[in-house]
Predict the structure.
Amino acid sequence: MEAASRLPAEQQAIPLHLLRLVSQGLPVGGFSYSRGLEAAVQAGWVSDEATARDWILGTLQANVAQLDGALFWRMATALGAGDAEGFRAADAWLAAGRESLEFQREDRRLGEALLRLLADLDVPAAADLQGQGLTYPAAFALAAHHWRIAPLQALSGLLWVYVEGQVTAAIRLVPLGHTAGQRILVEAVGAIGQAADCARLIDDRDVGNLSPALAMASAWHETQYSRLFQS
């Protein structure tokens, strides 16, 4: 305890800043999107705890880690190196990888909402980048850089945001009990570690995703008759 108390206040606060950024209470509207899950439930692909777990952790590994995570890692490390051009290039690459109009809109809306919040919290770079269509992971990278959150911690946090958001949506949509949701989150801890390793080690040539079912689910959701989540 004594050793911890000798740490600079800024270092002691870093994990708490990360907890704030990954909180479901962060006012950016992330709770209003299902990222294809609502259409997957409608199609009968996700119908219980087992299929929800497989969908959430499967898309984490095959889609989020290899695209969002990989390009977030490049953005976070570019910011650390003062490479503004590399940051913008990775952000543009990520935006180009969105496979449906719904995914594109979600990313832009969440990115802009987070940038507005960061600007209101006096994060200098955020005010300059508002209105430029940054992705949500890019805005998250700016926040992590500003509060000096290590890139690997921030990457794990971003992956947690995805998983927890999907579990929260599944609890409402399937529906699942809250204990079932917690079981998925417990299992997700190891899966997030693997996904983070994949994201930071993947070669540029392998960055991307090929998830036809997820892309179709998102596209179908745009015209789904009855929806709880935004499209």
Notes: Confidence is low (pLDDT under 50) at residues 1-5, 9-13. The chain has one domain: 34-221.
